[in-house]
Amino acid sequence: MPFDPVRDAIASPIFSSPLTHSLPLPQSPRTPMTAPARRPTGLAALLNDDPTPRTSTIAHLLHDDPRPDDRLATAPSIRKITPTATKYNPRNRISPPDSILRPMSQAEMNMYKSYQGKGTARLTGKRKRSPEPEPHRDEPPSKKHAGDVGVVVDHYNMRPDVGVVQRETSPIIGLKSFNNWVKSVLISRFAHPALQASKVGGRGPRGGRGKVLDMGCGKGGDLTKWGKARVAEYFGADIAAVSIEQARSRFHERRNPFEATFAALDCYSEPLSKAFPPAKLAAPFDVVSMQFCMHYAFESIQKARCMLENVSRWLRKGGVFVGTIPNAEQLLANLDALPGDAEDLSFGNDVYKIRFEDRTNRPVFGHKYWFYLQDAVENVPEYIVRWDNFVQLAAEYGLHPVYKEEFHDIFSEHQDHAEFGPLMVKMKVVDSNGESAMDEAQWEAANIYIAFAFEKR
Questions:
Q1: Region Disordered: what ranges (predicted)?
Q2: In b/e form, how buried is each residue of 418-434, taking b as 16+ CB within 10 angstroms?
Q3: CATH of the domain at 387
Q4: Can you give the pTM of this predicted structure?
């Protein structure tokens, strides 16, 4: 018969313990069998290690069948399992002994209804979400971005804002220095004259002149360049809100000789007037700068037009629009150079890599590729900017090209310049002997970019 602890415990005490020896069971007409006897498990016997067999009184209580061998009532006390009882004798008592059983007063009861100790306050405090920081007064409420835009925003928001010392340890420090030198040449050649001709500033102790819009300012990497250009007012806008906060912090940590206003804004989908108040935009800009970011606007013609509207509408006549973008001709030439049966449509080296998704489908807008640059860009989607199409579209907004050059040619043109040659040494593009800090892989990566300048007429 299967062992059933509930049935066996109620029916007979001999079924309630492990097997010891066989005893005859009460016979019935239907079950003529014998079952193994069980070791008694009297509670006192188990607790006191008493080898004397004891039987449970459960059957007695349930069936009102007194047993002569029932000893549970006379079993030794359970307390016998502890050799010596430990007396309750607390030390360092906080409350007096006579206060334990004293009834609480009504005032105490009212107090403890809403009382929280330090531990409770700490635990409940952790459960509560900290209040969201209030948005900056110059910024619209931040929003989440989806699709390719979300990938780009998340990437740049997560990029750490390294200091000057840590920046020098970058494995591509030579390339970064060279790119900064190219931007300095572009600003000096085209932005400085426009700033000097500006009607903004020129008064007061700072003595700056001109107004600059840095669209896609990122973490404020060009603030020093504009400080050396002695601008009067600087406006920085970027789609990545975290980058804007870092740019604002960078500005306030240094003594910059100009005023600055920052705003988180998608300049390819929203007007500048959404982020900057009318009083700030009343005087037009003298310079609009877009460094290594304009290609994101060419995801669609709508975004490209919104970008150009933001550039042109707030730029004065005679003002300049400067920037840097990937060289579409070179990127497409490298794509065409891949074997016809290649499944992996990528090229590059250890420093950079470009991967296309399609060889034949080449739309004017939305021609996407994926870009990786060591210690800078972690495989984000970018878009081809066809130069002729860009020039034609910009002309509709009164913007006309005055300069276009590949980075390699900018180097060849200005390396012996009286101003820009020594600047290369100062910015550590080359050392005092004229040797470059870039290796061949970095030099190849630099050549995928061009610099441009447009004038509003």
A1: 14-73, 82-101, 115-147
A2: eebeebbeebbbbeeee
A3: 3.40.50.150
A4: 0.68
